[in-house]
Design goal:
Length: 405
């Protein structure tokens, strides 16, 4: 088609007509390139009868890459996008006007990256583009493939934004993992510097936060992520905590106990319990969980998994005493005698709570046949519809039968 360059422009109209009539797509495109501005030439070739693609492919290859980019952004089209990307991949500078706030630009950026193009055009303001993309993703869909490629530059803007918000619900699993890896790193660095950080207000409450962390976060980061509600996979969290040194566990025992209680995470409470031997602070956090789960009926599972200890016995004694004092306003005598106890063996405490605590301890240490189980069953005879008492008796029955076997 080089000979066409020497043709007089006045002769182009008949040739264009003949090219259209004969469906000569490439000749039509060449004539358009000679006689019209790039944007008009591309637009006219796109409406060429039957098959415009051969001529459009030639035209996009012959014009400066930036002209094809501009034509696509003005009038997006999948076929044109595929052709333009072949040029942007080789000439990323043609994307210098990239504007993530506009849907056509996001689509072209995505196609360019997915085709193997460089994620950033040369000499652009990456910070401004990151901010623009984050703003767009508040309402728009993610441009596929882009976020994993720019996660290193994007993460600081997610982490340092005023609301610390990012449209996690709109991100793919791959994008979320890539971004989380870097956000967690930034969180770790900030905590090591002693920064006081506001809560990360993230809409993502999925287990992807666990998936996105390549290895165990350090204890401070894990605790902060738990407090901010970023971790929801109890098994994964427990696996990480099980690797902690005792000093880290002691330092964060109370917080872990609070998290176990608020989330009803029995496995975490069990982990604290197993690690509590010989350490008072861990033990206190574990016992806090024991008492709460006992009241909620969760200790049935606890007992099957962990086994009983003197700490559990003390909690059971106290629970029986508390329920007895709450239900039996006039002391323990009636329930105790119904269970076969001898009230004269007690010291005669006048305070109801103290009297029940003494009676429960009395029963537990063999002064009442059947122990706490028998005392509680006698109490149930008076208050058969009390759910808390029923749960306690189920637990005591399990322990009673285990002790007898």
């Amino acid at each position: 088609m080089a000979g066409l360059e020497s043709m007089a422009l006045v002769s182009h109209t008949p040739l264009v007509r003949r090219a259209r009539a004969r469906r000569w797509s490439c000749l039509h495109a060449a004539l358009l390139k000679m006689t019209r501005p790039p944007s008009e030439a591309i637009a006219a070739q796109r409406v060429f009868p039957e098959d415009p693609l051969p001529g459009l492919r030639w035209l996009i290859g012959a014009l400066p890459a930036v002209e094809g980019v501009q034509a696509y952004v003005q009038t997006p089209d999948a076929d044109l996008c595929a052709l333009v990307v072949q040029r942007t991949k080789a000439e990323p500078a043609s994307l210098v006007r990239l504007d993530p706030s506009e849907a056509p630009w996001r689509a072209l950026w995505s196609a360019h990256v997915m085709a193997g193009g460089a994620p950033w055009p040369p000499d652009v303001d990456k910070a401004a583009l990151c901010q623009s993309l984050l703003q767009a993703l508040q309402t728009a869909e993610e441009p596929p493939g882009v976020v994993p490629k720019i996660a290193e530059e994007l993460a600081p803007h997610v982490f340092r934004s005023t609301a610390r918000a990012a449209p996690w619900a709109r991100l793919s699993a791959e994008s979320t993992r890539a971004l989380v890896l870097r956000v967690v790193t930034l969180l770790n660095e900030a905590l090591e510097r002693g920064e006081v950080l506001a809560r990360l207000s993230l809409s993502c409450s999925r287990s992807c936060w666990c998936d996105g962390v390549s290895g165990p976060p350090n204890p401070e980061v894990l605790i902060r992520m738990l407090q901010w509600g970023l971790l929801t996979d109890e098994a994964q969290v427990c696996q990480w905590i099980s690797r902690w040194q005792t000093s880290s566990l002691v330092r964060h025992a109370n917080t872990l106990g609070e998290q176990a209680l608020s989330r009803r995470w029995v496995t975490l409470a069990e982990l604290l319990y197993r690690r509590s031997y010989g350490d008072k602070q861990i033990g206190q956090a574990a016992l806090l969980c024991v008492d709460s789960f006992l009241q909620a009926g969760h200790l049935l599972r606890w007992a099957g998994n962990v086994g009983w200890s003197a700490q559990d016995d003390e909690q059971l004694i106290q629970r029986v005493a508390d329920l007895g004092a709450e239900l039996r306003q006039i002391g323990w005598t009636r329930s105790g005698e119904a269970a076969g106890g001898k009230t004269k063996q007690l010291s005669g405490q006048r305070d109801r709570s103290s009297a029940w605590r003494e009676a429960a301890r009395f029963a537990h240490h063999g002064k009442l046949d059947g122990g706490l189980y028998a005392l509680s069953r006698a109490l149930l005879g008076e208050f058969p519809r009390n759910d808390a008492l029923r749960e306690l008796i189920d637990l005591l029955a399990k322990k009673h039968h285990r002790d007898k076997s």
